[in-house]
């Protein structure tokens, strides 16, 4: 189990990156070592699998799992760089075994052209490229209890250049600045999906910062000099979103804020907050703004958008931890929120009375 350090956003568990290789896991996409590593098949089994036809979905429920990795692109915000530099992989299966198989962007784009309900998960800081896979699969597992009759989903793990760099505070600040460009890249990718595709976005820690920026851009906003100049789908219905331990200034999503148009592109935003999370407690010390983060206690001053945001405080259950594994393991309230986000169409109204008291925004 990962444990956070004493300062914000410390959550690294480095694993070797094997981008472009086929690594197969036996039996089930949920089969992971306790350390988080993917179970690998024998060499002979991998050879047999490589010779077969792979299915880009989970054998039982037909869900699809993809990884989109922008690490080779860095902070470039250009369509050509995205098309040529995205590392795309599918969690593929054959004969009861599963593993990661490389795809070209053209192959993946053909899959994405289908309006399958899609969940995009964006991880936080200090996640090496290898760990982003098991990290994303852990989030996928947390959604496994959603109603089966809701039908299959497409689950996308968004992997961005977040590996730890030297200097703890410098690491936080450099990655915070980097999320602006990563937000543009995510917005570009979402814009490639058919406008009728139901979408949910789940962001954890700095991943919430990326997601918020992307949704702001999709609504027509700007991040400094960055904007989506050429749109494939200029009109897109609002999406559903969940931010867990959101590491962005709490006032950014207010109208007129740095991400002030994000809520225009969100149908409902569910916040999972924890004011004992060390990353939330010490966020203001690492950021020049000195502001409290959104994941500490939620936003204020949302005006007409206040009804779109609900918060669940899991301080009592999660306590002094920041690792996503702690959030998923310590509180069934977290998994309930994520399951709600994963349901297409929305089932929130059926559960409104049950969850209303615990999903009340903090003052």
Describe the secondary-structure layout.
Layout: E1 23-26, H1 43-50, E2 64-69, H2 79-85, E3 87-94, E4 97-103, H3 105-112, E5 118-122, H4 129-142, E6 154-159, H5 168-192, E7 199-204, H6 206-218, E8 239-244, E9 266-273, H7 278-281, H8 283-286, H9 294-297, E10 309-313, H10 315-318, H11 324-330, H12 332-341, H13 352-355
Parallel strand pairs: 2-6, 5-6, 5-7, 7-8, 8-9, 9-10
Antiparallel strand pairs: 1-4, 2-3, 3-4
Signal peptide: 1-18
Keywords: Signal
Protein name: Alpha/beta hydrolase family protein
Walk me through the structure.
The protein is of the alpha/beta class. It has a domain at 62-70 and 78-88 and 116-126 and 138-355: Rossmann fold (3-Layer(aba) Sandwich), CATH 3.40.50. It is 31% helix and 17% strand. The chain is built from 13 helices and 10 strands. A 10-stranded mixed β-sheet has the order 1-4-3-2-6-5-7-8-9-10, sandwiched between helices. Mean pLDDT is 81; it is low at 1-54 and 346-363. Keywords: Signal. This is Alpha/beta hydrolase family protein.
Please name the defining characteristics of this protein:
alpha/beta, Rossmann fold, disordered N terminus, disordered C terminus, AB_hydrolase_fold, Alpha/beta hydrolase family protein, signal
> Would you tell me the overall average pLDDT?
81
Q: What order do the strands of the largest sheet run in, or round the barrel if closed?
A: 1-4-3-2-6-5-7-8-9-10
Largest sheet: number of strands, sense, barrel closure? 10 strands, mixed
The fold-level CATH name of the domain at 62-70 and 78-88 and 116-126 and 138-355 is Rossmann fold
What's the Cα radius of gyration?
Answer: 19 Å
Overall geometry comes to globular
Helical stretch count?
13
- The structure class reads alpha/beta
> For the terminal residues, how far apart are their CA atoms?
32 Å
Strand content: 15-25%
What letter string, H or E per element, gives the SSE order?
A: EHEHEEHEHEHEHEEHHHEHHHH
Helix content: 25-40%
CATH C-level name of the domain at 62-70 and 78-88 and 116-126 and 138-355: Alpha Beta
Question: Mind telling me which CATH architecture of the domain at 62-70 and 78-88 and 116-126 and 138-355 this is?
Answer: 3-Layer(aba) Sandwich
Number of strands: 10
Low-confidence stretches: 1-54, 346-363
Protein name: Alpha/beta hydrolase family protein
Signal peptide: 1-18
InterPro entries: AB_hydrolase_fold
Keywords: Signal
């Amino acid at each position: 189990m990962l444990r956070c350090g004493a300062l914000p956003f410390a959550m690294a568990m480095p694993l070797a990156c094997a981008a472009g290789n086929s690594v197969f896991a036996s039996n089930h996409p949920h089969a992971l070592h306790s350390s988080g590593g993917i179970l690998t098949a024998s060499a002979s089994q991998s050879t047999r699998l490589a010779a077969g036809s792979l299915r880009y979905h989970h054998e039982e429920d037909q869900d699809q799992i993809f990884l989109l990795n922008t690490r080779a692109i860095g902070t470039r915000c250009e369509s050509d760089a995205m098309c040529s530099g995205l590392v795309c992989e599918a969690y593929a299966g054959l004969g009861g075994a599963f593993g990661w198989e490389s795809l070209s962007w053209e192959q993946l784009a053909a899959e994405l052209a289908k309006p399958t309900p899609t969940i995009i998960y964006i991880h936080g800081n200090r996640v090496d490229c290898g760990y982003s896979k098991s990290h994303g699969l852990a989030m996928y597992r947390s959604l496994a209890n959603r109603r089966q009759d809701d039908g299959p989903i497409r689950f996308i793990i968004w992997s961005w250049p977040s590996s730890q760099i030297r200097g703890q505070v410098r690491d936080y600040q450099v990655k915070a600045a980097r999320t602006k460009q990563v937000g543009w890249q995510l917005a570009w990718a979402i814009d490639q999906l058919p406008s009728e595709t139901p979408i949910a976005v789940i962001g954890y820690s700095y991943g919430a910062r990326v997601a918020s920026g992307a949704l702001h851009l999709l609504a027509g906003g700007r991040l400094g000099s960055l904007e989506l100049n050429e749109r494939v789908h200029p009109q897109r219905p609002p999406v559903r979103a969940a931010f867990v331990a959101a590491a962005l200034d709490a006032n950014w999503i207010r109208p007129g804020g740095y991400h002030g148009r994000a809520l225009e592109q969100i149908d409902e935003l569910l916040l999972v907050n924890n004011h004992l999370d060390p990353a939330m407690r010490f966020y203001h010390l690492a950021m020049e703004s000195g502001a409290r983060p959104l994941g500490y206690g939620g936003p204020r001053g949302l005006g007409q958008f206040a009804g779109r945001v609900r918060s669940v405080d899991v301080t009592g259950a999660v306590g002094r931890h920041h690792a996503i594994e702690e959030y998923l393991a310590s509180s069934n309230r977290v998994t309930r929120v994520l399951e709600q986000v994963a349901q297409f169409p929305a089932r929130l109204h059926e559960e409104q009375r049950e969850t209303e008291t615990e999903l009340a925004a903090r003052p």
